[in-house]
Amino acid sequence: MAPRAVVPDEARELAKLCARIADDKKGEHIVILRMTELIVLTDYFVIASGASRPQVQAMADEINETMRKLRVPCLSMEGYEHGRWVLLDCRDVVVHLFETGTREFYDLEHLWADAPRVRWQRASRSPGPAGREGGPA
Which of 33, 50, 112, 113 would you label with 43, given CA atoms 20 to 30 Å apart? Predict the structure, then answer.
């Protein structure tokens, strides 16, 4: 099957889908940053934390599998073996999955502080602990 093209509105929805998948896998402090005015390489960053390497890898596996089923090309997955920072490059959406300490060290939200945050809706799960993003889509 050939990969399909992603249009801008679809890229935003794919970013929200990735956030929901991370949330379903108990990811924490999930944010979506709109990067369109800041860089040309991608439209959205999705950033999430996991408490352990297996959790980070589980989030990466589920996002990668979902993109494959949707025929959205994930051009690469980096850092999976170590699981401290896994980057999935799905062209219009780049997903950064961190172990908590690694995320604090690299602090991408501070580095990209000018990027607007995108609100997203959690799946049917009940509200989690403070610090998780979400809200109306």
Answer: 50
